[in-house]
Each structure stands twice: as C-alpha cells, then as structure tokens.
Amino acid sequence: MGGRVRIMRGRYNPTSDAVWLAAFLPNGVKTVLDAGIGTGGAGLCALAHNKDIQLTGIDISPEMLAECARNAALNNHDVELINADITTWRTARTFDAVITNPPYFRGTPAKHNAHHNADLALWTRKCIARVRPRGYFCTIVSADRISDVIAEMNHHCGDITIIPLFGAKQTAERVLLRGRIGTRGASMLHSGLPMNYDPVLRDGLTISDTLATL
C-alpha cells in the first residue's frame, strides 16, 4: 500500500490476500474482528484505510499474536488480541464486521501452521456468528473453495457480493466474498480484477473506490 503498512519479516509474511481483504471492508464500520489475524496483515491494512476502526484479532497461535503485537506497535496502532480458536471461542460479543483470510489450503501444514486443512463451512459459520445484525462478513478464499463458503453464507446473509481475482490463468485464483447478516438483498457478481492490480495493492484504493473508477 505504498509504504502505508509496515510488517516485520517473521514466521508468516502476509501476501496480497491481506491487502485485498482489507480493501473489501465496507465504509462505516467501527468495530472489526479479524479472525485468524496471524501477524496482522489484513487488520493493519484495514486500519490504514480507516484509523478509527476498533480492531480485535483472534488467533490460535500465541507466537503469531506476539508478532502481530509488534507489527501493530510498528504502525502505531492499538489492537486487541485474543489467543483462542474462532471455531470454539465462547463469547457473546459481536462486531460491525468480521474479516477473515481463512485456512483454505489443503495439504501438509507449513511450519507456521496457518492456511491448511480447515473446515471452511464451520469457520465461516463461526465468523458469521460474531457479526451483529446487518453487519458484514468479508473473506477471501481460493476459487476452488468458494462453494464451502457461499453455501454457509446463504443461510445467514443477503446482499452477497462476489469479486473474482485473476492471475496468469483464465480461471480465477482467489475470490472476494462479502455478505450482510440478516438481509435479503440479491447477490451480485462483479467482473474480475487482476490479482496484481496496482491501484489496490500499491496505491491503497478500496474496492468501492476501484469499482467507481472502472
């Protein structure tokens, strides 16, 4: 984002997924939960868009949270961090929005234990449960896993927005998904954007601003 977010190299280095997810967060939200915050990539990018957000992050890894705390301090932000598993977290708290870059990859876990072998339907359901009525659930997933997420969103969300992201292939590599809890609005599928789209990744535009310029 043009140097607006600083991340120390560590056990898990955020990718462009984090920037895209943060850019997809709608305007007007005040409290945001980043589920699986890791080292803070998406949450800190969201704060770069809106410094007044009250950001809470939850992650199962204390090592990740320690690095996230250092990255938050590096960017002069206060972030509430919770060491727990979003799928078993017992709480009555809700938020204006929940963002998540979930563990969508299948295969042998990496050393940082992130992004592998999660039950995406369960993960999605537990994230949605933490959103207040008419609040937003926002996620980015690999294109081959969208059915798991959309099927769960359909039970709880309306106004579902779908934006595919394309790399070098003719098929989408990632998909941005956003729904509003408890509403009944129709779904909207946008034309895709390239994954290396500089107005978002380098210039720091939000998705709303980007779509307005196309």
In short:
The chain has helices at residues 16-23, 41-49, 62-74, 120-128, 146-153, 198-201, 207-213, and strands spanning 31-35, 54-59, 80-83, 95-100, 131-142, 157-166, 172-181, 188-189, 193-194. It is α/β, with parallel strands linked by helices.
E-strand count: 9
pLDDT averaged residue by residue:
92
Broad structural category: alpha/beta
The fraction of residues assigned to DSSP E strands is 25-35%
Q: How much helicity do the residues have?
A: 25-40%
Spatial shape: globular
Instruction: Show unreliable segments.
Output: none
Separation of the first and last Cα atoms: 20 Å
Count of separate DSSP helical elements: 7
Question: Biggest sheet, in brief?
Answer: 9 strands, mixed
Explain the overall architecture.
Helix content is 27%, strand content 27%. The chain is built from seven helices and nine strands. The protein is globular and about 40 Å long. Helix 1 (16-23) packs across helix 2 and helix 4 (120-128) packs parallel to helix 5 (146-153). It has 214 residues and is of the alpha/beta class. Strand 6 (157-166) and strand 7 (172-181) form a beta hairpin. The two termini are 20 Å apart. The longest helix is centred in the N-terminal third of the chain and has 13 residues, at 62-74.
